[in-house]
TrEMBL record:
InterPro entries: ArAA_b-elim_lyase/Thr_aldolase, Low_specificity_L-TA-like, PyrdxlP-dep_Trfase, PyrdxlP-dep_Trfase_major, PyrdxlP-dep_Trfase_small
N6-(pyridoxal phosphate)lysine modifications at: K250
Keywords, sorted A to Z: Lyase, Pyridoxal phosphate
Alphabetical list of Pfam families matching this protein: Beta_elim_lyase (PF01212)
Cofactor(s) required for function per UniProt: pyridoxal 5'-phosphate
Gene3D superfamilies attached to this UniProt entry: Aspartate Aminotransferase, domain 1, Type I PLP-dependent aspartate aminotransferase-like (Major domain)
Limits of the Aromatic amino acid beta-eliminating lyase/threonine aldolase domain: 52-339
Protein name: Aromatic amino acid beta-eliminating lyase/threonine aldolase domain-containing protein
Alphabetical list of PANTHER family matching this protein: L-THREONINE ALDOLASE (PTHR48097:SF9), L-THREONINE ALDOLASE-RELATED (PTHR48097)
One GO CC term, this protein: cytosol
Family stated for the protein in its record: Belongs to the threonine aldolase family.
Length: 413
């Protein structure tokens, strides 16, 4: 979020960069001239140590995970005969304290099935934060496919919203209005920088929902990050929620797969919806085996990712730069948002600089390091730590970041 609350995604950032390039020679802008200019790169065909911090979705299955996938017992899951999928669903229902679970291909489908399953009538309305992934990045699936209207509430920097806003915005029985049928929350909150929602706040939202007879759904794409960082169990966090969708293919490192958890009567509707959306998979046990492996081997290690994100934030903060800023206290889990002073450098320029190497830098850092990140908002860049960026990678990334920040600060003096 920038200072005016606007969200900008990577593709927008790149478009902006190209159009700026095209107008600059003709329309010299004095403000732009005062901004940072990167040194020439070593070579345009640069090879080096690539540290990809764009997202935890880039993680690849480990050798142990691949072996578990090869050894999985299989059946036809559309017939509900795949023993590995059934085992995963049983494990996840227990883990989250819910009646049942359903394995689905992606987080987007998990959320869509959940919203469609709760809002059975066209003209329903869903209350959710204006920075929610479901609202921003899921193609308005609820509107496209269900005739459901999202009704957004301003998201606060900590990922929550004002609970009084729920009561103010509820629309239950008025011939002019849609009916509020569902509330959605997101934990950890991605756009706000991997923020953990306080469980007491979730409980409060849950009890308001219950008091007016509507369900609460959690987009828990990174629920396990919240579990590990807060020390609370998944069941405790989800106590006030009716359903949740949880991803295995983010920090847990599986190639594919998410799960919906919730009550038994809901799951029958969810199975039908999964089928019509094309998410009924046959021998899905290979993917469920990866998720079972991740539950055993990849959850506790998320603590390392959280430590790495904090290390990055700490190193940036210790530079004391006024142009490149990261608040350590804002890092709750595996995401660090780095803010850039608008007079110094744009997110696009910062990302481009991190993806290239100059001569002097290789001597200081000790090797040619390429950091991949992308613009997040009009004045920030998101760094996401994960299994495939080791402690050693983070150390060299820090060395490079410090060098680049120093370069920017020197030019802005
Ligand atoms: C918070 C959140 N919810 C849902 C999703 C969607 O997950 P998928 O990419 O598996 O569809 C993402 C993806 O990054 C996410 O960050």
């Amino acid at each position: 979020m920038d200072r005016s609350g606007r969200i900008v995604n990577a593709s927008y950032g790149l478009l902006k960069q190209w159009s700026m390039k095209n107008v600059l020679p003709k329309n010299v802008n004095l403000q732009l001239l005062r901004t940072y200019h990167p040194p020439p790169p070593v070579s345009s065909e640069l090879k080096g140590h690539v540290i990809d911090l764009r997202s935890d979705t880039i993680t690849k299955p480990t050798i142990g995970m691949k072996k578990a996938m090869m050894d999985a017992l299989l059946g036809d899951d559309v017939y509900r005969e795949d023993p590995t999928v059934l085992e995963l669903e049983k494990r996840m229902a227990k883990y989250t304290g819910k009646d049942c679970a359903l394995f689905v291909p992606s987080g987007t489908m998990g959320n869509l099935i959940s919203v469609l399953g709760h809002c059975e009538h066209r003209g329903s309305e869903v209350l959710l934060g204006d920075q929610a992934h479901i609202f921003l990045y899921e193609q308005a699936g609820m509107a496209q496919l269900g005739g459901i209207q999202p009704h957004i509430i301003p998201t606060r920097p900590d990922g929550t919203f004002d609970v009084n806003e729920i009561t103010l915005r509820l629309r239950i029985e008025d011939v002019h209005c849609p009916r509020t049928t569902l509330i959605c929350i997101e934990n950890t909150q991605n756009v706000c920088g991997g923020k953990i929602l306080p469980s007491l706040w979730i409980d409060q939202v849950g009890s308001i929902a219950k008091s007016v007879g509507i369900p609460l759904h959690m987009d828990g794409a990174r629920l396990m990050n919240a579990v590990v960082a807060s020390g609370e169990s998944a069941a405790r966090i989800l106590q006030g929620c009716d359903t949740a969708s949880i991803c295995f293919s983010k920090g847990l490192g599986t190639p594919v797969g998410s799960i919906i958890v919730g009550p038994e009567e809901f799951m029958y509707r969810a199975i039908r919806l999964r089928k019509v959306l094309g998410g009924g998979m046959r021998q899905a046990g290979m993917l469920a085996a990866a998720a079972l492996y991740a539950l055993e081997n990849m959850v506790d290690r998320l603590a390392d990712d959280h430590k790495h994100a904090k290390l990055l934030a700490q190193a940036i903060s210790e530079t004391g730069s006024k142009n490149v800023i990261c608040q350590v206290a804002d890092v709750h889990t595996n995401i660090a948002i780095v803010h850039l002073h608008p007079d110094a450098i744009t997110p696009e320029q910062f990302c481009n600089r991190l993806s290239m190497v100059c001569d002097e830098e290789s001597q200081v850092v000790g090797e040619q390091v390429i950091i991949k990140v992308f613009p997040w908002t009009t004045d920030s860049v998101r760094f996401v730590t994960h299994h495939d960026a080791t402690f050693a990678d983070i150390q060299v990334a820090i060395a490079k970041l410090k060098h680049v920040i120093c370069e920017i600060d020197l030019q802005m003096k």
